Structures are given as C-alpha cells and as structure tokens.
Amino acid sequence: MREATLPHGVLRDGEWRRDALVRAPTGADEAMLAESFTGASAAARLSALLASCVARLGGEDAGLADVRALVVGDREALLLQLRAVAFGERVPCVLDCPGCGERMDLELAVADLLVDAYADAAAEHALGRLRFRLPTGADLEAAAEAVDPDAGAALLLERCVLAGSLTDDTREALEDELERLDPQAELRIAVICPSCGEPVDATVDPGALLLDELAEGSEALFREVHALARHYHWSEHEILGLELRRRRRYLDLLVADEGPEEASL
Asked: What does the pLDDT read at residue 27?
C-alpha cells in the first residue's frame, strides 16, 4: 500500500481530507479492463481502475461512486501514484519539437508532477453571478459519450454550472477559472529543444500513460499467465494476483532462462 495526498480533497464531516491509500495494480485489474471495459471510454476505464486500486479516501473505504465524485485533479494525482507503484518513480516521455521535428526523450519524476495542496478547496465557487463546481470523474465520463470533442467540452462546462447561465464571455472565463482552481487536472511541462533552442510546451496525461503501459489486451495478458503457469505451476488466480512489476520480473527471468520462443511469449 502507498499513502497518497489529494491536492483538493474530499469533504468529511465539514473537514477537507486529503489522505488516500492506494495499492499497486495487479493482473486481475488488467484482466478487468481488457475483458469488461472493451470499447469503454478512457474516463470510464480509469474510474474502474481507481475504484479497484484506491483503498481509502479521506479515512473511509472507497468505491466506484467515490472515485467518480473526485475532482479531476485528485484523480490525476492518484493515477500518478498508481503509475509510481506499478512501474516506478520515473516516467519516460517522448516529445517532438514543433520547430525542427527533433524527437526528445525525457524522464520525468512523479514527485515533480504532483502539485501542492490547494488553498481554496471548496464544494462550489463563484464567478460574478455564476456559481459552479469543479469537474469530476463522472463529468469526464459523460463528456466522453458526446458525439464529438466540442460537444463533450460544452457538456462538461454545463454540468459544472450550479446557478446562472453560460454566455460566450462567461464560458471562456469559466474555463480559465477551472484551470486556475484545479491545476493538477492538466499537467504542462516546458523544455528547450536541444537542437534548435526553441521552447516546447506539452501536456502530460497520467491516465493515458498508465493505460498504455498496462497489458494491451486479454490475449497478451493470458499469454503471460500461460507462460508462468506452465513454468512455475501457479494457478491463474495466483498469477493474476501478482503486482505488475513482480509478474514481469518473473517473465524476464523466464525469457532469460528459456528464450522468448520457448517461454511462449
């Protein structure tokens, strides 16, 4: 288990609590995503993963409804923590310079991607006559079901409005305010291209990174299960219960001993 801190937090008995407890993803979590969430949006898949791997939020047991109710920045912070326990504290990242096309290989530290606790956490906020709340995981899931990205973005903003109406002016102002109030929700990095010296700005999506690094699908996962079961005589339940890094260490040893063809990977 790994202790984590939420930048925004959850409201418990009138107090904002930022403590959380997460466990490393296992093969069972990979199988769940591959088998039960085929075709689901990234937001829905990440909600399922968080519901499975987040043990506690604000001192209480957590479930699907709890992780769907988290503001986006809290979810991103938890996904970074899950990525760290699953694959380590360093995050490889590849950027292409828009100026010269040079490809840059970066390695980011999870600790550097986590922002400090928000000073103005609140259940609702005001912007002139407009009252609103921060977007949540449930909002992301709803937006992902829209017919196109523009419609999804509009739906996301509309769901956050508690009182008042959106105009072109207030819509832009609300977008800026949401970004200010929940900075963990969209992580931006800025580097200088070593080839041409141009500044390069990019965003880091912890959820997309984590989903990409999990098993590509049930066939790949169960080939790994088959190889380990045949060699070590473990049950499927035992193998799927292993944390990802531990399972892949055994696979690396198996390939080193027998070669990839003999290991049937």
From this structure: 92
Lookup: tokens for 80: 């970074």
Please give the structure tokens belonging to residue 65: 């409804």
Residue 230 located in a structural domain: yes
Reduced to 3 states, what is the DSSP secondary structure of residue 120? coil
pLDDT digits (tens, 9 = 90+) for 244-257: 889 989 999 988 88
d(CA 231, CA 227): 6
How many domains does one find in the chain? Answer: 1
Residue 2, C-beta contacts closer than 8 angstroms, at least 6 positions apart: 21, 22, 23, 24, 81, 84, 85
15 within a domain of the structure (yes/no): no
pLDDT of residue 244: 86
Question: In Å, how far are 139, 143, 156, 176 from 150, measured between CA atoms?
Answer: 14, 9, 10, 17
Segment 9-38 mean pLDDT: 92
Displacement of CA 121 from its chain's centroid (Å): 21
Range of the domain at 248: 218-262
CB 6, CB 62: distance < 8 Å: no
Whether 12 maps to a domain, the answer reads: no
Give yes or no for residue 104 having a pLDDT over 80: yes
List strand residue ranges (DSSP E) for 32-186, in order: 54-57, 60-61, 90-96, 103-109, 125-127, 130-132, 161-163
